[in-house]
């Protein structure tokens, strides 16, 4: 588990995104942010807003840690519930894992399983995601 970063000091906000939640019955959308460390230029994500009810932890989650978890899930080659992402958070909100699942679906790193409702699967090209995040730096400077 990674250390919690409370105030995001030493990081720069790169972009804020909006996405749908995983459940079609869920109301409102989520906002999440892409942050970059000022010194070593690594990326992190943070949940930042929920348009409806439901708490969450706004801590930074390192993209490297997300990719490590996705690598394990990909190697297992089985569909998984969003709760498999729970270990990425220090915070204990029950919504964290499913909200991060929605974020990763929005980022096109994972996808809903085609035959089984509520299950997810890692996309084959998930490893290219960190490289693709660099495009948002260029957009921010334009």
Briefly characterize the structure.
The protein is α+β, with helices and mostly antiparallel strands and 142 residues long. It is 25% helix and 25% strand. The strands form 2 sheets. A 4-stranded antiparallel beta sheet has the order 1-2-3-4.
Report the helical percentage. 25-40%
Strand order, sheet with most strands: 1-2-3-4
- Compute the average pLDDT: 91
Helix-strand category? alpha+beta
The major pleated sheet works out as: 4 strands, antiparallel
Q: Could you list the spans in which at least 5 consecutive residues all have pLDDT below 50? A: none
Number of strands: 6
Radius of gyration: 15 Å
Q: Supply the number of helical segments.
A: 4
Q: Termini distance?
A: 35 Å
Following the backbone from N to C, one meets helices and strands in this order, namely EEEEHHEEHH
Proportion of residues in extended strands: 15-25%
Overall shape: it is globular
What are the defining features of this structure?
single chain; 142 residues; alpha+beta; four-stranded antiparallel beta sheet; two-stranded antiparallel ribbon; 6 strands; globular
Structure in words:
By secondary structure, the chain is an alpha+beta fold. It is 25% helix and 25% strand. The protein has 4 helices and 6 strands. The longest helix is centred in the middle third of the chain and has 14 residues, at 63-76. The model has no long low-confidence stretch (mean pLDDT 91).
């Amino acid at each position: 588990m990674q250390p919690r970063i409370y105030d995001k000091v030493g990081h720069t906000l790169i972009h804020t995104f909006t996405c749908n939640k995983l459940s079609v019955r869920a109301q409102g959308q989520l906002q999440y942010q892409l942050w970059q460390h000022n010194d070593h230029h690594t990326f992190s994500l943070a949940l930042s807003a929920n348009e409806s009810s439901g708490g969450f932890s706004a801590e930074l989650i390192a993209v490297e840690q997300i990719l490590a978890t996705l690598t394990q899930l990909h190697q297992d080659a089985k569909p998984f519930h969003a709760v498999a992402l729970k270990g990425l958070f220090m915070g204990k909100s029950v919504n964290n894992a499913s909200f991060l699942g929605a974020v990763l679906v929005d980022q096109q790193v994972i996808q809903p399983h085609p035959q089984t409702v509520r299950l997810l699967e890692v996309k084959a090209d998930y490893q290219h995601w960190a490289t693709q995040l660099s495009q948002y730096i260029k957009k921010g400077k334009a």
